[in-house]
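Project standup — Tuesday

K.O.: blocked on the structure for the chain from last sprint. Re-posting the sequence here as requested.
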Amino acid sequence: MTAFFESLGMNYEWAWFVATIAGVLLIALPLMLAVAMIIYVDRKIWAAMALRKGPNVVGPFGLLQSFADGLKVFLQETIIPSASNKGLFLLAPIITFTVALMAWAVIPFNSGAVLADINVGLLYILAISSLGVYGVVISGWASNSKYPFFSAMRAAAQMISYEVSIGFVLICVVLWAGSFNMNAIIEAQRGHGFGIVNGFFFNLLLFPMWVVFLISSLAETARAPFDLTEAESELVAGYQTEYSSMSFALFWLGEYANVLLMCALNAILFFGGWLPPLELPILYWIPGWIWLFIKIFAFFFIFSWVKATVPRFRYDQLMRLGWKVFLPLSLIFVVLISGYLMATGHFA
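H.V.: unblocked you, prediction finished:
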């Protein structure tokens, strides 16, 4: 894109700057629209599984319901508790929302179609996703209220616990691909099904690690059955209790942007990203970004399905699963996968 703006007569510095801004907008604006529509889809899936209709009044088939909700919160008054730390109270939702958008900078939508094609893309994702806990913790502490503070402590322990397992899962992926670059990780998934299945669909060796990653993704984004940070039966609304208007909406948008990010990572790291599911020439006629969006939606359906059907875990069950099941399992697979790759000469 920089070359295009240079062809319009700009010098390199201005062409790079304008191209970067254009790239950011090309990702951020569709993502905001996708978040609004995915909230609608989420509610429709829950309604269908509970034999209800869901949103069906505002706009055709209720498609404009999310925009009506957004307008409603935009017009509401922002209430700041008198005893809160006002600066941190307002900063927390901004952190959550901003961090959720920053991670998309290294997500490849097609071959070469990525804002920042850096060699350490996966490390960048891990670092940025780890920052998301700060918005929750700061909001819980700055509210100066009992239940948000409990929620913040839960969130810190929960996210740290499952990030450890996610880290070891990502080590397995990096060992197989031999790179932290997101495009290289996708390319490394071509034909690795050991002749049993098409490698574009899933990696048989990494399949157990995908199961761990999928469940850890639910915990990392505080989705049911791991939504202990906003358990309304215990904590009113958790860290969001004292928030209203657009500050509440930023938490809401950040949460769904993180959910979409985790769905994208499931597709990219384990299911071929923008590659078609089968090695058939006709499937390459469909652009890669469409395949990626189909896979993202499939994983989002799983997220919604789980939320609509699985009861919430107790907190001790949540911690036990993370530390006593996922951590040992992921460590074992790091050893198994590295051993297999060494034995087959993969590192030669």
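K.O.: great, moving the ticket to review. The chain has a mean pLDDT of 85. The CA atoms of residues 95 and 135 lie 5 Å apart.
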